[in-house]
Design a protein that fits this description.
The protein is α/β, with parallel strands linked by helices and 239 residues long. Helices cover 39% and strands 23% of the residues. It is built from 11 helices and 7 strands. Strands 3-2-1-4-5-7-6 form a 7-stranded mixed β-sheet, sandwiched between helices. Helix 8 links the parallel strand 4 and strand 5. Helix 1 packs across helix 3.
């Protein structure tokens, strides 16, 4: 796919989200996609290698939460994988400080390489477990927004997310179609960790993907003992 073909599909899809995009940003999206697909021939970075599906399921899906990000100063993307939703949000919001966190460094090295090539600034890429990073004072309750996209169950991910969020900030969970039982099970965890469900948005991305966006408002400080270490949020979710 050349850049003109990319631009036509990308602009058609992004217009549905009423997002304004500049010419240089289109080039950044295109070069990031080409870079990920090229890296994918050496390292398993993404299961999605069809270019049109990549645009929809990685770029457009990531940007479904942009309306919350565009008025914020800082965001942390936990379990970023190949950089989603963090990199698309960074391209569209160049002045927002964005931190990407993952425990798999080989994927982060790819993001470091590609983000440098497309000239992204105010981007921090950290190899760490979220539960370790959230106990460091320079990261704890320092972000307007924390995001995750389809990472683990909600009870687990809110324990990773909410400790990073400032009081009155947002934790945004991006989930697929089968989230309601997870959310019911997570009610106690959300309350204990200082959150309150503000709203849930459900929408279709492209023709195949159902995206549910769970917006959790941080209403009070998270107790210091959270998040727990030794993978307890995953093995023993708060119930």
């Amino acid at each position: 796919m050349n850049i003109e073909e990319f631009k036509k599909i990308f602009l058609e899809e992004i217009s549905k989200n009423e997002i304004q995009v500049k010419e240089n940003q289109i080039k950044q999206f295109y070069n990031y996609m080409i870079g990920i697909i090229e890296w994918n021939t050496k390292i398993n970075v993404t299961a999605i290698t069809d270019e049109k599906m990549f645009i929809v399921k990685h770029f457009i899906d990531s940007l479904t939460i942009n309306k919350y990000v565009e008025s914020s100063n800082s965001l942390i993307d936990i379990g970023t994988g190949a950089g989603f939703p963090g990199i698309p949000l960074k391209i569209i919001n160049p002045n927002t400080k964005i931190t990407l966190v993952d425990s798999i460094n080989k994927k982060l090295n790819i993001i470091r390489d590609l983000s440098s090539k497309i000239n992204l600034e105010k981007l921090e890429i950290i190899h760490s477990r979220a539960e370790d990073l959230a106990q460091k004072k320079e990261y704890r309750e320092m972000y307007d927004i924390a995001t995750t996209r389809a990472v683990s169950n909600i009870s687990t991910i809110v324990e990773y997310m909410l400790p990073f969020v400032k009081v009155n900030g947002l934790a945004i969970c991006m989930k697929g179609p089968n989230f309601k039982e997870e959310l019911d099970d997570a009610q106690k965890a959300i309350e204990i960790l200082g959150g309150k469900i503000e709203k849930i948005e459900s929408l279709n991305v492209g023709e195949e993907l159902e995206r549910n966006i769970i917006i959790i408002r941080k209403v009070k400080k998270t107790p210091n003992k959270y998040p727990r270490g030794q993978s307890k949020p995953l093995k023993e979710p708060i119930r």
